[in-house]
Amino acid sequence: MMDNGSDFDDQWCDDEYSSEASEFDREGKIRHNQLHTIGYHEGREKGQKDAAQEGFVSGFKESVSAGYKWGLVGGVSSALACLPDGLKEKLVESVEARDKFQTLYTSIKSISKEDALGLYRGEILHNQSKGDSKAAEETSSSETLPSDPISRSSRLQGYSEELESLLQSSTIQVHSAVE
């Protein structure tokens, strides 16, 4: 009889063990799913933050460069406009070039900081929309059309290019690179 009792005890322990193992498996699967979901959400958040940071860094570099060029145009044209005529003639020999410097100064002076920022923002948005439509055109056509340099040139960029052109006809030297 003892054998029967012991078989019963062993069978009861096996049933209890298998029931507990089942419960542990079920809990393990639940925990795995929960942790997987948490990991997914954390990874997604981190990816979004990284992408936002990358976009900020890229945009910051572009805006610093544009701001530096804008300040350079304003500073050089303003400094030249404030000089006495005799000194202007020594720095910029051509009357035509001096007139262009004065015109550049007048144009720059007429644009407020807020308007310059608005122009910059508008150009960014225009370039983004142009990039989106260009990407759509490229996917729909195997040929790429040559881009028009005039349409690529922005109003703010135009001031910088005008200054660079005028500086070539003068003895004024300006370090215009942003590092």
Automatic annotation (TrEMBL):
InterPro entries named in the record: Yae1-like
Residue ranges of the region described as Disordered: 128-157
PANTHER family: PROTEIN YAE1 HOMOLOG
The protein's name: Essential protein Yae1 N-terminal domain-containing protein
Organism whose genome encodes this protein: Papaver nudicaule
